[in-house]
Amino acid sequence: MKTIPNILILLGVSLSGAVLGQTAKTDFDYTAIQPGSYDGTWWNRTPIRLIQTNFPAVYASMAVDDYVDALVDASANTVLFNTGGIVANYQTKLDFQYRNPHMGERDFVGELIEHVHEKDIKYIARFDFSKLHPSIADKHPEWLYVGTYGQNQTFNGLVSTCINGAYYQEHSLDILKEAIETYPLDGIFFNMMGYTGATYSGEYHGICQCGSCKRRFKESTGLDLPTSNDDSHISEYRRFQQETSRELYTKVTDFIKATNPNLIIYNYNDVGTSWIASESGGTPLRNGPEYIYNATNNVKQVLGSYKDVSPVNLTMGFLAIGYRNIMNNPNLLRGWMLENMLHGAPLGFVVVGTLNHYEDRVFLPKVKELYTFHKTHEPLFTNVQSVSNIALIQDRGGEDARGMIRLASEEHLMYDIINPSQIGGTRLPRQLEDYELVILNNVAMTDKELATAVSDYVKKGGKLLVLGSAVANGIEKGTGTFSLETLGVASVVDVFPKAQATYLKVSPTDQQLLSQSKEFSLMMMNARFLQCELTPGAKGYLRLLPTNLYGPAEVTWYEESQITQYPGVVYNDSGEGKTVFIPWDIGAEYEQRGNYAHRSLLLGTIKNLLSVDNTVETDMSPTIELTRLANRNGQFEWMGMINHSGFLGNSVREPITITNTSLKFKPLKPVKQVRLVNAETDVAFKEVDGWIECTIPRIADFEMLLCLYE
Questions:
Q1: Does residue 486 lie within any of the structural domains?
Q2: What is the spatial distance between Cα 600 and Cα 584, in angstroms, rounded to a whole number?
Q3: pLDDT (tens digit, 9 = 90+) per residue, 206-234?
Q4: pTM for the whole thing?
Q5: Of 146, 353, 393, 623, which sits 20 to 30 A from 436 (CA to CA)?
Q6: Which domain holds residue 604?
């Protein structure tokens, strides 16, 4: 591990070689901590360490003991294993389920469940109903997906099914019933339960034209089934897909709960589920750098939106869909796994095959190291909740979401992510009123509950930052509960399209709202822009300079007369609250370019216009991702530090060790002891006006600063 040279550290080295401020390792009994339970379940806000072995059928003759010993050695406490659907790894009695021929007469699943339960490892049964073995598919063509040109979709010998056919609608329940009634399962996971898309190689055969799809679409809409994405009724078809998918999810999850209410359900959406699945990696092979905050995005969206569901984000070990037999960059995978852990989410890891047989083993020692660390410190990951003063309301996908996560992480802002669909509901861990600042990030105000909740938040004295052009979309459709006047906007005169050589003019007066560097009077603006007329009392900052001459150099200039009156930032006092509106897609801009002027503007609006300060003060590098969580039983709080300094775009190298960083924060309760968990040392600290001040001597790949309450 590399270390940044620091002359102060060099001068502070004692004769024994110890670094100034760092004490010797000391023992600590973490089992003495009593974290309590979040809701009495074994699976929600608890220290889950899941390993999924995507199991090739040919391995069914292996020794179960070796498989389980590898799980135990890796400190896993949950396994996700291929049980049925495409291939049954047990002696199924159903003639429409293909039995794995490689297991012979043995009951592989039964043996495995018995052995993992002996080791206190939970067994989650994985099912996949998206494809059939041809021996079954040939007998039931009515169950199959039919492409635009009348062909079924076959890949590597397996034939795709359709969710509107009887296999999905009826016989999937028979398969689930057989497994649930035969084995003491702990949970159910079903994969790819949805409409058929492209094959693993990227080949797309179009909208399914099977008889079931045609019939159901006609019954639902009165229309003929579209044959292409350019069809005039494609929007009705997309709604039909959403409705029928949700209907099937509800049907299946209700059936599972009725058959065995003690089973947890693990799936990629929130319909009837206990764990919401997501993946970091595991995509088709593509060029360009991976998203450094992938796992952060996945887990925080769930943790901030649901109190009755946990995120189980899978670190996909393999490089890509077309390269499942080798590992992705181990430094990249480590960063994603640390994001899971230090945001308080379960750990999840996927290997194709088994831990014993996988040929590329470069990341497996790190899996064992992090899983063992997690096991050793289980109380610290039990019944915890983030300590954040900012709520970031945004969808999980898209560059707007990624840009704001990037900015918040670089600037060490403490934030939760909330899915817009959950605002106003009963599943939120915290209500909007609990946050000092709410950021609405390019979200259309089409949902009445969302619009009402945001409006009420401002009226009661909340501080609201609205980003992007999408907010006007829902208002134009008329929710009736949120008005642009709340944001200081009388009307949207026009929409200026995204175009090059478009700027915002920064006047000397505008400089007051900027943070950090102010040595510029023009700011790039390459995004869709709402041209707004303001209400009386609202204040506008920065002015739109529309596309002007930009080449060749001899004709690259603009006239002052070209600067419009349309502001790039709008401030307004609304009720007892305050709002700032940035009517262009600044989040996506920051994700695309990381522009210093955009960073200065965003931080300035938060600090200088809305008067919201960081709850953590630090001189840490922007490459350190900082998290903060507290035990809901009042025992402790801790800060996690993830070192992303090795991220060099396409190349992710070992992080550089960061030394002697300061940290200042106000704990939720009086603190009696501060400890570096990874370094296994106590840390000297002082308390000033209720704030804890300390120095972190060393951050290698990660660290945790634990504060034990009095």
A1: yes
A2: 16
A3: 999 999 999 999 999 999 999 999 999 99
A4: 0.94
A5: 623
A6: 388-614
